[in-house]
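fwd from M.: "can u put these together and see what the complex looks like"

so here's what she sent:
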Amino acid sequence: MSTAPASLDAGVHEARLRELDEVWGTKPGLRGQLTAVNHTTVGLRFIVTGFAFMLVGGLLSMFIRLQLAWFDSEVLDPQRYAEFVTMHGTTMMFLFAVPIMEGFAIYLIPKMLGARDLPFPRLSAFGYWCYLFGGLFLYSSFLFDAVPDAGWFMYVPLSDATWSPGLNADFWLIGVTFAEVAAVVAAVEMIVAILITRAPGMDLRRIPLFAWAMLVTAFMIAFGFPPLILASILLEIQRAFDFAFFEVARGGDPLLWQHLFWLFGHPEVYIIFLPAAGVVSMIIPTFARRPIVGYSWIVLAQVAVGFLSFGLWVHHMFAVGIPLLALALFSAASMAVAIPMGIQVFAWIATLWSGRPWLRVPMLYLVGFFFVFVLGGLTGVMLAMMPFNWQVHDTHFVVAHLHYVLIGGLMFPLFAGLYYWLPLASGRTPSETLSRTAFWLVFIGFNLAFLPMHLTGMLGMPRRVYTYSEEMGVHWLNLLSTAAGFVLAIGIVAILVDVALSFRHGPRTARNPWNGGTLEWAIPFPVPLYNFASVPVVGDRDPLWQRPEIADASARADGMLGEVRDGQREILCTGLLSGEPEQVVRISNSTWLPLLAALSLAALLTCFIAKAYAVAAVMLVPLLGLLGAWAWTSGHRHAPTHLDVTADLRLPTQYAARNAPGWWALVVSLLIDGSLFASLVFSYFYLWLGADAWPPAGIATGSWGPQLLALGVLGVAAGAVQFAMRAVRRDARATAITAWLLAAVAGLAFVAVHGWALWVPVGPPQAHAYASVVWTLAGFHAVHVLVAVLFATFLAARVHRGYASAARPLDARVAAGLWRYTVGQGLVAWAVVHLFPRFA
Amino acid sequence: MLACTLAACSGPFSTLDPAGPAAEAIARTWWLMFAGAGLIWLLVMALVLWALHRGHDTRALAHPHRLIVGGGLVLPPLVLAALLVHGTLSSDRITGSGEPVADRVDVTAARWQWRFRYRDADGRVVAESVDELALPRGRTVEFRITSADVIHSFWIPRLGGKIDAIPGRVNRLRLRADEDGPMPGQCAEYCGLEHAHMRFEVQVRDAAAHAAWLAANRPVAPAATGAAP
């Protein structure tokens, strides 16, 4: 692998590498596989599982195409067709497109940043299991003949209990939300990893563009997924407990679903596209053999796309009857996305034009990307044009457009990336024969399948019809689409076969076969699970081009963190802006906890969909127990507060450092939770806008007394937490324990008092959409208080056992931060629930 | 339009075979955008291919940033501004907002049929029909559209854009038919198993024939003169 450095005895060096292998390695056998948390392993799992779901989703689309190949055909009956269309869209969006990019990111980001692993390995492993179980949960609906059938955007009232009385919609709502846990935890992981685990010297202007893209994407997930998660929760509550959010007769509004869905759904498109664009930005410089042109332009464009994408959701709703002026604003915003997109496309062209292009397989797929994606982008601008949208909305024109954008924007870069980074996983370069044949099959098959669909749509064929009449005159076009669709499918299977074969038969290669400039290419083959024996130091955007010797240096165990201590996995964290070394973070070894936690969550949701609500509530016990064990093992009472990184650099550990990853994870999680809460408050005001009276007849605002009492009790809890935090900092153990327990008791008292304060005036939540949303707001906050109560109790135990102290305050800081947020959320919820109706 | 005369673009459901002013204006917009998008796409692909295959011309681009500014900051806003101006200018013709309206039809979508109630200038219901829509030739008609159950979408491709039929809401749409059929309408929002068959026929007649048709299709129950939705 590498020769022993002069500074170290050869024997010592070998021993260090062996020790690194042992500490970072996965245990042999099934046990090792089930407990693995390493980012390389988890990332590859995401990728393999993602492709497996893609094959299933693709198989469904083959049946769809067979059914549509000719008029009046009967391959699928209408029910099966509805199921297949729904599951095809759902699978490709939620179980393929988003997770596969997460897989690429989980696999690549630490390697590109020069890190050994992600900061929260257990969390990404947990995310993977949630993704897998969520997907299986969704597909288990086939066993119960209750396959979701209301279309992948699940519009109410079609998906409510009246029009979808079976479990079909429940499988969708619960399964998709379960799988989305993976996206949300990956967002936390990515933001923290990219902000503070970069190699020393990698300041903001040297972050690889894929990492920038993932950072923006992670923030978009943080703000974009909560509206859908909330909508799914609201609809599931309505279906299970007869609440009234979307029901017109009881003051609800079906359009609320559409707003929440597209508040997620449009950013979702860019959540899928931005990482793929990041892939393009990584591959182009390598094959242009020069640094990217317009690095800052691309970063700004990515950020601009992130912001703009949240202002476009209504362009999916141009035909629901929203006032024209509002539509015009959304139309202009939708078109404005063309600007940052244009910047990126022309930056890539400029890079190729000013370099010496080298047309290897990954680059070939990128040519396909330009061809397809630019077309999809142009039809996107057309769709932003309102009158044209009114004509082609919900027709096959849109089907064509979205496949051009998603297959062009995601699949072609994905395959390019797959071939580009394949040597990291296989140690071999891909063949140049089958991969090129497969490219042409995919490219020709795709265009012949989807280009005609623009026309079928304009000739009047709506989407989601299981058949069409001869007089529509679109059967020849459809036949062409179907035939070409099969060519596309063969091409995709050929790519996967080629990739699988190349693990066995490709030409073996040494490190860095493409001569790439970024840190992932510094790693020797086969890639060790710790990535870098010593943390590399970088001084350029393309560090390997500037100083090729980084590769050898980082494979030697004589640099930063080269020596294993206490059998612990250690990573180095750096300053958010500066990229200077700041702390040493000890992360988890292999553990059963992620798998068991995901399993108990799966059990809980299974009980819920079986309508065994009491059992589901009991299932909270093992889940909370496991999460408690997780939290308890996140620190050590004798953990060192400082460690030597090299002979002359001593840094604090995360237990003592201010910028600890755990603290950042809390901040990001609260951002996500705040977005969820904001979506709920949005729903409240949206329902108010459509209401005649607020609160409606028969529901009162109630008296001030109990409401103010509840607020007072919450204030007591807040005070107790402040006091407890100060006691921890002074190491006054007994006081701290008492104060944390007082906070817990006050929290419980608040939930009881507030429940009573609401029950008297509002009554049961089923009465009216007002009651439903008020109870949900209060319940949402109550859940937060209960979680905070658990944290306070946990902290009392931690202080008692000596884990949380003045020297290691991280636990207490996290708990206090959560409490402050919860109290703040409570104030907003209280004002919305109790003040607003009095003045509305 | 010239290209619309191509046989491939005609058809009873074809948006490219317009039979009224709104559909015609939109079809014109489409052909305009089609030409513009085609040019832009050719330009981008030409640049990509040139950048990749410069043959013996190994000179690098002298000012690469100018390409980014031109393609990212200059070209898109120009094209988008032109589109927005075009959209604003054709908007009245498409929405029919300036036209006098004497005919009103209330549309109720339900799984899986279309119910039409025709009102006279005083708002009285004068006729009813199901899955069959009668329109006076050359007169703008205002539709007030709602749903009795799930969300549907009201769409007559040869006359103009669609608008959703949503329970608890009434959406308005103005259309004018200048030509005779066939021009079926159909549901465009997935609404359940028979969505694909949720269609209605549109019959366009001159003023006299239309009045005769209305007279022949009086509401069965006089009580149907209830308030407008």
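replying to her w this: The two ends of chain A are 72 Å apart (CA to CA).
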